[in-house]
Design goal:
46% helix; alpha+beta; 5 strands; 324 residues; globular
């Protein structure tokens, strides 16, 4: 990512070069829709009444990457980190940012980097690691979140009117294009059947499991017990205490090595995602050991690159790689 490679002229190729993944059709359709609402600044089409901005790969459509060879950190923009919040696993890619206080953001979630997203979800990084699916595509997610905001008593009346106006246009646009607006689409329900475990972030993980049930075995601790173990490690006051509290975690890592030898790659992914989602610098060396290997074994090489980048620069701040 540190090489000066010219950006492809074709915007879809440009995004794939920078983000390692292709965006779904609804991503581009939503940009066209926002252009209809705000021709000069489509990225701000929802800002006046929701405080949201289109970011991430939308910055490429807005041309914000042009002419930036060094950002405020004095390095080339790393798009794998652009609006990658503290709890965003590689599977999650931010496309809408909300306020910096809660660090509310909306993004596409995909199980496999070479495949299209399975849904669009929300995380509030200042509050928790929870990733909450809100619809199959960006139109559905935005509509469903606006529906909830309209019901909230605290929503300002003037903003409500603007939201309702925007909402009716969004629904109309989606219907003419045959875009599904359901909170739970049939394809999301199908994906739920493939989820091998919910994981700490709640969005679940999916790995291939063959007819002999090779591919996944669960981490042999309940989520509650694993969280207690991790809390002890993170709260340790001395190195000696930490080493002692780390022993049960190291035992789990050893079990993952056995699982990997027997092609149950899902266990390493589960444990790695759980430790990543729990958070804490002290756990990063284990996450660095577990997740890149899990992604490599699963053939999800793009995610390996993303997690390695993220762990090197992981921060509780909102990261805009194009800021000067």
């Amino acid at each position: 990512m540190d090489k000066d490679i010219p950006s492809p002229d074709n915007v879809k190729d440009n995004i794939k070069q920078k983000y390692l993944m292709e965006m779904p059709e609804d991503f581009y359709q939503f940009w066209e829709f926002c252009k209809e609402q705000n021709k000069s600044q489509p990225e701000n089409a929802m800002y006046s009444f929701l405080g949201w901005k289109l970011v991430g790969p939308y910055d490429i459509l807005a041309g914000k990457h042009k002419g930036i060879s060094r950002n405020k950190n004095g390095r080339r923009p790393n798009y794998l980190l652009h609006y990658r919040y503290y709890y965003d696993p590689p599977e999650f890619m931010t496309v809408i940012r909300g306020d910096d206080k809660t660090q509310f953001h909306i993004g596409y979630f995909r199980d496999v980097p070479s495949e299209m997203p399975v849904f669009v979800a929300v995380n509030q990084a200042a509050d928790s690691c929870n990733i909450v699916p809100r619809g199959e595509n960006i139109f559905g997610a935005v509509k469903n979140i606006i529906d909830e905001t309209l019901k909230a008593k605290s929503t300002d009346q003037e903003k409500k009117k603007k939201m309702e106006h925007f909402q009716s246009k969004l629904v109309n646009f989606a219907q003419t294009k045959g875009i599904c607006l359901a909170l739970q689409s049939p394809s999301m329900k199908q994906r739920n059947k493939k989820v091998v475990c919910k994981s700490f972030h709640g969005a679940g993980i999916v790995v291939p499991v063959d007819q002999n049930e090779v591919g996944y075995r669960p981490v042999p601790e309940t989520p509650a017990d694993l969280k207690k173990m991790l809390k002890k490690v993170v709260d340790s006051k001395t190195e000696k205490e930490r080493d002692k509290n780390m022993d049960p975690i190291q035992e789990l890592v050893t079990l993952v090595q056995f699982a990997n030898d027997e092609c149950d790659y899902g266990e390493g992914l589960e444990l790695g995602i759980d430790l990543f989602s729990y958070g804490g610098d002290v756990l990063h060396p284990i996450v660095e050991h577990l997740l890149p290997l899990a992604y490599q074994l699963l053939g999800r090489f793009e995610y390996k690159e993303i997690i390695e980048s993220h762990l090197r620069h992981r921060s509780h701040k909102v990261n805009n790689e194009l800021e000067l």
